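User: quick one, fold this
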Amino acid sequence: MQKPYHWLESLEMKEPQSAKDVFTIFPMVATETKERDYLTLEEALEQNLVFIPESGRVPELTVVVKGEKPVLIMEGEILVGGYQNRTVNISLLLDAGKEHYIPVSCVERGRWGARRRGFAGLLPETPSDRFISTSVMASSRLRRRKTATVINCYMQLNTPVADQRDVWEEVSRELLAAQVESPTEDAFEIYEHHRASIEDLLAPIKTLPNQVGAIFAIGRMIVAIEVFDHPDVWTIASKKILSGYAAEALELLWRGRVSQTVTADEAKAFRDMVSAALSRATIKPSPVGLGEHHLLNGGMVDGFALVHGGKVYHLFAFPRTHRL
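Assistant:
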């Protein structure tokens, strides 16, 4: 069986794409792909094959998969509705025809009750007892900060729980940096307020044939690598994933134009570093759904890979630096 790090090394890194000298991605392209045997959360919701009611507990949501295929729910997904908006703690492959209890974190500190209005035209009216997916992810900085605490807890207690106060602290910081007033301290309102700026920043970024992910850099810093097993998943998820990196890149733009970017050699060196970290990852059976998590916790890299049947469904890894 091929090891995950061999799979990563087999991907081809293409020429970088940059936006306003502040945001750069290095597309990762698969040389061959196999048939996809699962749905993304977005696809399952569109087909009415997933139901996500309010659980009544902050760190947990119920996800009912009604179809015949497993459903991939990605770390960083923002789910709006219920009593407060949440974000998913770690990527999961949920079995078909079952009810699951997934670990989440709150990204709307000041609300605990039904909200019946839509979201500035970006979303339809949301029933008060359920959640829907959005067209954005949590900001990349929030995802890294949250995931670092999730991995630590997972390693020690075998459960992927985040430090909720740390998540709230980061959401508050981001709202302040974006100059967005939110009565309920809702991370999603950053995207409502700065939608045009995010779309403008991402305009030069294009999806390539057979692209499955990318290495992301903001200014002179590589911030993450994110890769899926199939080009269809990247095509479906790329807009929301890129929006999270764009939200972080905008902060740098607001502080002044950046004229230096990461080189291809630096990006390749980071990919090699992640490959090495995967080869010595700590493996934990997924507490929810199918597969296992390969936890990157040590050395110079943090993050995880969701693996099932020897195949990496989602890899999210980032440099270990000083506290974000």
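User: anything notable?
Assistant: Residues 117-126 have pLDDT under 50 and may be disordered.
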